[in-house]
Amino acid sequence: MPQLASDLSQQVNQRLNQVGPSGIREVAQKFSTIPGLIQLTLGEPDMNVPEHVKAAAIKSIQDNDSHYSPQKGTMYLREGIHHYLMASQGLDYDPKTEIIATVGATEAICASLFTILNPGDKVVIPTPAFALYFPLVTIAGATTVQVDTSNSDFILTPERLEKVLAEEGDSVKAVLLNYPGNPTGVEYPQAMIEGLAKVIADHHLFVIADEIYSELTYGVKHYSIANVIPERTILINGLSKSHAMTGYRMGYMAGPAELIASATKMHGFMVTSPSNPAQAAAAEALHNGLHDPEAMRKVYEKRRDFVQQSMDEMGLSMATPSGAFYAFVKIPDSYGQDDVKFAYDLAEQGKVGGVPGSAFGAGGEGYIRFSYAASDDDLAEAMKRMKAFVAKKA
């Protein structure tokens, strides 16, 4: 087995060296070695991909659709993205010039940040937030400005954003919003989005809107900030959560044509183009499967209510999710703010895996995130085990 030459050991990208691996994946990997543990760590739907969507992928393979697609994705897929955004949110993007099909929403986030950021720029991120954002900003040579929202119901208010921008100065380039949010499941009300949009426009900023959970809301309708400031918005979404297609790796970004032209170059440098069978499946989902998420949404809402009730019975508080499929739970007082110790004790002694809240940035310390995108049986057993564990630690 080859070993890296000693004179090359420090010659890799130094910005990459500044960041660690994904905290979520790292915890999930460590916990996977614990016998009998129930994993509630990853946002991995336990649902199956709809049959008509799978059939489209199979047909693509059978038709020998094995050559490079256009870099932005097939026109039929981009038309499907246009169809979905128009039907669900009234957003009108030209499939020829304003949409890119990406390898998951992850690639869309990466391509967006690498397209707009220069060294010295700052990105405002309300936290706790999806852990992927922080290292990508760092690797792009920019700086994250983490805004702790734990004392404002996990929402960045326009007033708070205005204050942060006054403190940080003109080097702020963008605001990154994820709603419904990971790890909290909190959705932003329309009035709050409109207020944030005004501040963002007044300060001449971009907004990257990661709306991957937009189809999974409970009792509220998702309202995209692209409805208010489309000229400043990079809209990111995908099929992983709405159609349980995590392994297909299909996402997309939409925005003004001039910006999408630049992002297309970055996207092309990174991946050339997405997989054809995955694109065929995504196109089918977006053209003919707009109602597919409804059944999943009902299941997740029922599971949310079950987890909420279970936490109430344990005397633990959590942010009530109005979207996504995460429970962000305050750990027992006996652990203080040490969410890492609580998560590891719960895994090793209680046989339930969750992600320490500190993995999600400022405001996450003292919390633990559970995904309720798990089977009903696993959730029931996990809550039973956790109740017994918490009772012993009281």
From TrEMBL:
Cofactor entry: pyridoxal 5'-phosphate
GO MF term list: pyridoxal phosphate binding; transaminase activity
Record-linked PANTHER family: AMINOTRANSFERASE, ASPARTATE AMINOTRANSFERASE
Protein family (similarity comment): Belongs to the class-I pyridoxal-phosphate-dependent aminotransferase family.
EC supergroup of this enzyme: transferase
Pfam families: Aminotran_1_2
Catalytic activity, EC: 2.6.1.-
Keyword list, A-Z: Aminotransferase, Pyridoxal phosphate, Transferase
Superkingdom classification of source: Bacteria
Signal sequence range: none
Organism field: Secundilactobacillus mixtipabuli
GO BP, one annotated term: amino acid metabolic process
Protein name: Aminotransferase
Residues annotated as domain Aminotransferase class I/classII large: 37-385
InterPro entries per the UniProt record, alphabetical: Aminotransferase_I/II_large (IPR004839), AspAT/PAT-like (IPR050596), NHTrfase_class1_PyrdxlP-BS (IPR004838), PyrdxlP-dep_Trfase (IPR015424), PyrdxlP-dep_Trfase_major (IPR015421), PyrdxlP-dep_Trfase_small (IPR015422)
